[in-house]
Amino acid sequence: MSARFGDWRTEAAELRALQPRHILFLCVANSARSQMAEGIARSLAPQWVKISSAGSSPASVHPRAVQVLKEIGIDISGHRSKGLDSIDAGSVDAVITLCAEEVCPVFLGKAHRVHWGLLDPAAATCSEESRLNAFRTVRDDLRHRLKVLFGQGEDA
Question: Which of 131, 25, 152, 23 is nearest to 68 (CA)?
Protein backbone atom coordinates (compact mmCIF):
# COMPACT_ATOMS: atom_id res chain seq x y z
CA MET A 1 0.00 0.00 0.00
CA SER A 2 1.44 3.39 -0.87
CA ALA A 3 1.84 6.27 1.55
CA ARG A 4 -1.23 8.37 2.11
CA PHE A 5 -1.16 12.13 2.39
CA GLY A 6 -4.39 13.34 3.87
CA ASP A 7 -6.05 14.72 6.94
CA TRP A 8 -4.39 13.27 10.03
CA ARG A 9 -7.77 12.85 11.78
CA THR A 10 -9.04 10.66 8.93
CA GLU A 11 -5.79 8.71 8.98
CA ALA A 12 -5.98 8.25 12.76
CA ALA A 13 -9.54 6.93 12.41
CA GLU A 14 -8.42 4.51 9.67
CA LEU A 15 -5.57 3.25 11.83
CA ARG A 16 -7.83 2.91 14.87
CA ALA A 17 -10.25 0.82 12.78
CA LEU A 18 -7.39 -1.42 11.60
CA GLN A 19 -6.37 -2.15 15.21
CA PRO A 20 -2.69 -2.60 14.36
CA ARG A 21 -0.67 -4.79 16.70
CA HIS A 22 2.65 -3.11 15.80
CA ILE A 23 3.03 0.59 14.94
CA LEU A 24 6.32 1.99 13.67
CA PHE A 25 7.16 5.71 13.78
CA LEU A 26 9.68 6.59 11.12
CA CYS A 27 11.85 9.60 10.30
CA VAL A 28 15.44 10.24 9.29
CA ALA A 29 17.59 10.46 12.46
CA ASN A 30 15.25 8.73 14.94
CA SER A 31 16.34 11.39 17.41
CA ALA A 32 13.41 13.72 18.05
CA ARG A 33 9.99 13.34 16.37
CA SER A 34 9.88 9.56 16.10
CA GLN A 35 11.39 9.13 19.58
CA MET A 36 8.80 11.46 21.10
CA ALA A 37 6.04 9.68 19.17
CA GLU A 38 7.26 6.31 20.44
CA GLY A 39 7.34 7.49 24.06
CA ILE A 40 3.92 9.15 23.92
CA ALA A 41 2.33 6.24 22.05
CA ARG A 42 3.64 3.73 24.58
CA SER A 43 1.99 5.76 27.33
CA LEU A 44 -1.38 5.79 25.51
CA ALA A 45 -1.62 2.55 23.50
CA PRO A 46 -3.33 -0.60 24.75
CA GLN A 47 -0.82 -3.06 26.20
CA TRP A 48 -1.26 -5.44 23.27
CA VAL A 49 0.04 -2.85 20.78
CA LYS A 50 3.80 -2.89 20.15
CA ILE A 51 5.27 0.55 19.51
CA SER A 52 8.61 1.07 17.73
CA SER A 53 10.55 3.86 16.07
CA ALA A 54 13.43 3.93 13.63
CA GLY A 55 15.26 6.15 11.16
CA SER A 56 17.06 5.84 7.85
CA SER A 57 20.17 7.55 9.31
CA PRO A 58 19.96 7.01 13.07
CA ALA A 59 21.85 9.50 15.23
CA SER A 60 21.22 9.70 18.97
CA VAL A 61 18.19 10.64 21.02
CA HIS A 62 18.07 14.41 21.29
CA PRO A 63 18.38 15.69 24.89
CA ARG A 64 15.55 18.20 24.33
CA ALA A 65 13.23 15.35 23.29
CA VAL A 66 14.02 13.63 26.58
CA GLN A 67 13.52 16.90 28.47
CA VAL A 68 10.14 17.88 27.01
CA LEU A 69 8.70 14.38 27.49
CA LYS A 70 9.92 14.36 31.08
CA GLU A 71 7.86 17.57 31.52
CA ILE A 72 4.71 15.49 30.88
CA GLY A 73 5.80 12.49 32.92
CA ILE A 74 7.22 10.28 30.14
CA ASP A 75 10.78 8.98 30.47
CA ILE A 76 12.60 8.16 27.23
CA SER A 77 16.08 8.59 28.69
CA GLY A 78 16.74 4.89 28.08
CA HIS A 79 15.78 5.03 24.40
CA ARG A 80 18.38 4.73 21.67
CA SER A 81 18.19 5.65 18.00
CA LYS A 82 17.60 2.64 15.76
CA GLY A 83 17.97 1.97 12.06
CA LEU A 84 15.36 0.34 9.87
CA ASP A 85 17.44 -2.83 9.82
CA SER A 86 16.65 -3.33 13.52
CA ILE A 87 12.92 -3.63 12.80
CA ASP A 88 11.20 -6.88 11.77
CA ALA A 89 9.31 -5.45 8.78
CA GLY A 90 6.99 -8.45 8.67
CA SER A 91 5.65 -7.71 12.14
CA VAL A 92 4.77 -4.05 11.43
CA ASP A 93 1.08 -3.39 10.73
CA ALA A 94 1.20 0.41 10.48
CA VAL A 95 3.91 2.96 9.70
CA ILE A 96 3.57 6.64 10.54
CA THR A 97 6.21 8.78 8.84
CA LEU A 98 6.90 12.11 10.52
CA CYS A 99 9.28 13.87 8.10
CA ALA A 100 8.36 17.29 6.74
CA GLU A 101 11.18 19.17 5.08
CA GLU A 102 13.48 16.20 4.43
CA VAL A 103 13.04 13.02 2.40
CA CYS A 104 11.29 10.38 4.49
CA PRO A 105 12.72 6.88 4.66
CA VAL A 106 11.03 4.22 2.58
CA PHE A 107 9.50 1.29 4.43
CA LEU A 108 9.38 -1.82 2.26
CA GLY A 109 7.06 -3.93 4.40
CA LYS A 110 3.37 -4.50 3.69
CA ALA A 111 2.18 -2.22 6.52
CA HIS A 112 -0.53 0.41 6.20
CA ARG A 113 1.25 3.77 5.80
CA VAL A 114 0.26 7.29 6.77
CA HIS A 115 2.27 10.50 6.78
CA TRP A 116 2.10 13.09 9.56
CA GLY A 117 4.64 15.64 8.40
CA LEU A 118 6.01 17.64 11.33
CA LEU A 119 8.90 20.08 11.20
CA ASP A 120 12.06 18.76 12.84
CA PRO A 121 12.51 20.69 16.10
CA ALA A 122 16.18 19.65 16.19
CA ALA A 123 16.73 21.67 13.01
CA ALA A 124 15.49 24.91 14.57
CA THR A 125 18.16 27.61 14.45
CA CYS A 126 17.06 30.19 16.97
CA SER A 127 17.41 30.99 20.67
CA GLU A 128 17.60 28.18 23.21
CA GLU A 129 14.12 29.00 24.54
CA SER A 130 12.66 29.03 21.02
CA ARG A 131 14.31 25.68 20.23
CA LEU A 132 12.87 24.19 23.40
CA ASN A 133 9.45 25.57 22.46
CA ALA A 134 9.79 23.96 19.02
CA PHE A 135 10.21 20.59 20.77
CA ARG A 136 7.21 21.33 23.02
CA THR A 137 5.08 22.22 20.00
CA VAL A 138 5.90 18.93 18.26
CA ARG A 139 5.38 17.02 21.53
CA ASP A 140 1.95 18.57 22.05
CA ASP A 141 0.92 17.99 18.43
CA LEU A 142 2.00 14.35 18.64
CA ARG A 143 0.24 13.85 21.97
CA HIS A 144 -2.97 15.31 20.56
CA ARG A 145 -2.83 13.14 17.42
CA LEU A 146 -1.94 9.99 19.36
CA LYS A 147 -4.75 10.54 21.86
CA VAL A 148 -7.12 10.68 18.89
CA LEU A 149 -5.51 7.58 17.36
CA PHE A 150 -5.96 5.59 20.56
CA GLY A 151 -9.51 6.85 21.16
CA GLN A 152 -8.65 9.15 24.07
CA GLY A 153 -8.95 12.55 22.42
CA GLU A 154 -11.90 14.85 21.95
CA ASP A 155 -11.74 14.22 18.20
CA ALA A 156 -11.95 10.44 18.58
Answer: 131
